[in-house]
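Collaborator request, handled under Task 6.
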Amino acid sequence: MTDTPTTSPVSAPSQPGGAGPITAPSGSAAAPAPAKLLVAPLWLRFLQGLSGVGLIIGFFMPWIKLGEMVSLSGFSLVLTGGDVVEQLSAPSRGLIFSIPLIGLALLATAIKGFRGLAWAGLATGILIGLVGMYTLISAFLDSTGLGMWLVSGAALLAMGTGALSLRFSKR
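Structure tokens returned to the collaborator:
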């Protein structure tokens, strides 16, 4: 055994009698960073839960109204047959059926406040938004004639030329 002094990671007390602060040596690493937030903020959890409840309730409310006689909800689009219903719901019938299940999943993640809340919300919004846009565009394309396309194109052209003329007149 040798009589060489050993060093410890913590320096000795600065005052006699053991009083005084104990500090880490100057070359040591700083304190570890605080842990990441594992639970989403309450306001965000509330909004996510509200979107889940909206998906569940909206599934059973009217989606399509054809006059006063015919009204179709998401539930009836899944269960009902026919040419019109098939045209509106056939490409996305499985997704329509999953809407209340996705709503329940969003509500559960909001209640628990898991960090996956962000991904669940983004995936739901993107998926339902894309399928909804596809359904609207395909129904619009299937139900419009040449006159509607001519009017729509002329309106877009008029809007563009008006915006350009306003842009050039400010020079």
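The cover message to the collaborator said: "Residues 50 and 128 are 16 Å apart (CA to CA). The chain has a mean pLDDT of 75. Please let us know whether this matches your experimental observations."
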